[in-house]
Design brief:
The chain is of the alpha/beta class and 246 residues long. It contains eleven helices and eight strands. The protein has two domains: 168 residues, Rossmann fold, CATH 3.40.50.1000; 67 residues. Helix 2 packs across helix 3 and helix 2 packs antiparallel against helix 5.
Length: 246
Amino acid sequence: MSKQESRKGVNAFPNPRSEAPMELILFDCDGVLVDSEIIACRILADLIGEYVPAMDRKRYASAIFGSTDDQIVAAAEAEYGVRFPADFVETAAETIKAALEREVEATDGADRALQTIDLPKGVVSNSPRDRVDRMLDRAGLGRHFGGDIFCAEMVARPKPSPDVYLLAAKRLNAAPTHCLAVEDSVAGATAALAAGMTVIGYLGGRHIPVGHGDRMRALGVVTLVPHMDDLAAAIADLSQGGQRVR
C-alpha cells in the first residue's frame, strides 16, 4: 500500500494558504521535537568565540539557530574576518554530537502532541541524519515517524532553501500546498513557506529570543504556539480558518 493510499480515513484539515485539505505534517527536529538548539548553539558560540574574543557569545548563540554548522561557520568567517582551521566544522560537529547524546531531551509535550495529531508525519531537518536519528531515539520520539526523516545532506541546498521540504513532500506523496510544517527558526519557516506549505511557528524552546514571534509573523507564519500542548488545538483552529498568536 502506498503512503498516499494509507492516508484514506485520516483527518484532513483545510489549508488557509490554498484552501486545500492538509494531509501531511512535517516537523523540524532541533528546537521543535527535541530541546537541542540551546545545547548546540552554546557549543558553537563558545568554539567560535575562542577565535573572536570580543564576540558576545550569549547573543551570538541566540541568533544562529536553524542553520547548518557549515552555514554558521561561513557566516562567522564573513562577519568577523577570521579563518577557522580546515577541520573546525568536523570537530565542532563531534563535540555537539557528544553533548547531545548526554543531554538532549524531548521538547516538553512533544510526545503527547505526536500521539494526538491524526495526520501522517515526517521530520525535515538541517542537521545530519545520524544526529537526528540519535536525538529522536534518545528522546523516545523516533517511533512516530517510521523512518520518514529528511535532512539537508539529501539535497543540494539546506534551509532556508525549500529543497528538503519539497523532497519530503515528494517522497511522501503529498502536494506541498497540502502540507503543514512546524518550525521554530526563520530559516526553517522561510524554507517551508517557499515550498508552498502552511507554517506553524513553535515558540516554546529555551533558545527562542524575545521578539521572535514578530519575526516569524512577518515572514507569513499563520499561527504561533508557545507550547507543544497547544499544537493540536492550533491545527483545529486552522481547520476553521482561525489563527493563534502568542
